[in-house]
Amino acid sequence: MLFVLAMCVLGQPDGVAKEPEKVPAKVPVKEAEKPEAPGSSEAKVAVPFPHPMISEVLFAVPTGNAGDANKDGKRDVCGDEFVELVNPHDRAIQLFGYTLTDSQDAGKGQVRFTFPAVELAPGAVVVVFNGMGSTWSGPVGDAKTSPPPPGKNELFAGALVFTMKNSKSQIALGNTGDQVLLSAPDKTAVHRVYWSETGPEPEDGPTKEAAPGVPPSLTKAGKARPLVVDFVPLMSKCSVQRDGVLGSGRFVSHLEAEGAAFSPGVYMVARGAEKKVEPSVEKPAGTGEKSKDAGTP
Predict the structure, then answer these.
(1) Residue 107: pLDDT band by 50, 70, 90 thresholds?
(2) What Cα–Cα distance (Å) separates residue 172 from each residue in 165, 190, 244, 295?
(3) 49, 67, 102, 110: which one has the fewest Cβ atoms less than 10 Å from its Cβ?
(4) Whole-prediction pTM value?
(5) Model confidence at 269, in pLDDT bands (50, 70, 90)?
(6) Domain limits of the chain?
(7) Where are any strands of DSSP class E within 164-254?
(8) Could you tell me if residue 169 is left (phi over 0), alpha (psi between -120 and 50 degrees) or otherwise beta?
(9) Cα(237)–Cα(64) distance, rounded to whole angstroms?
């Protein structure tokens, strides 16, 4: 009996009997979540299909011959203003019923243009000029008719070109405080591009009271926030251009981005290749100046 007990004790190195080691149960490994691609939250076109978006705006026409954006041989403080749109999608879109407006109320000096039936190919651009006192070469359309065949205007790199046919100098974009709003046929506010001397509005949307120097209709309460809102720097020597069509894009000085004052009809920024251009703010001469009343040829 003592011999058996001794053997039992000597059989354990520590002199203490141990319980059999438990084998841990297999725990199912949670499938790893696929990591998001770098910038994937931003790597999306800013506007959903089938909407176009604003790619360039000239709201303060440069002085002298440098301001002849519509290439009719003369500079007009109102007529050479333009808004350029791009189709950022990989499918064609229809522009019929889309409307461009500024901050003024309808019938009270409002800049307004509604597109007729016209299809915009993937990656293609369309330019809308104010048209005050302008003469035209090549196919140009208006709010009632699309550009006649062949449609594309070679003076503007083959882009579609329209004129508002404006005949009043009071109807123009303000140099130091205004906006361009692109609205869909169903009244959806798609893309708003705005500028002011006081800087961008609060991120939570327009305030109830207009800031000094900003037209009251810029900050009216109760309006649905557009799908895309871009604040742009003030310029007097060039247009502003969006540095990409993705959600991360922003408007910059065209002069700094492209080395030219403007390029109506040309928009070379591809999806996913946003440019990195530091924004600049250039104050035009004078205060409270509006292109509709302060420009001189």
Answers:
(1) confident
(2) 12, 21, 26, 11
(3) 49
(4) 0.75
(5) low
(6) 43-297
(7) 177-183, 189-196, 228-231, 240-242, 251-253
(8) alpha
(9) 10
